[in-house]
Design a protein that fits this description.
Helix content is 66%, strand content 0%. The protein is mainly alpha-helical.
Length: 59
Amino acid sequence: MYFTDRGIEELQRRRGDEEVTLAWLGERLQEFVDLNPEFETPVERLATWLARLDDPDDD
């Protein structure tokens, strides 16, 4: 188990029944980076990965 798994599991446990939009998620990610600029690169990578999940050109 990775250390990050605990955070993911907490997210699923606390908010797993909620429905959110990608716009809401984008706003939360921007807010997080504003508060924690040292995490800009990993958040950017996650956002790009999520944006391109179904893009056949990225295989």
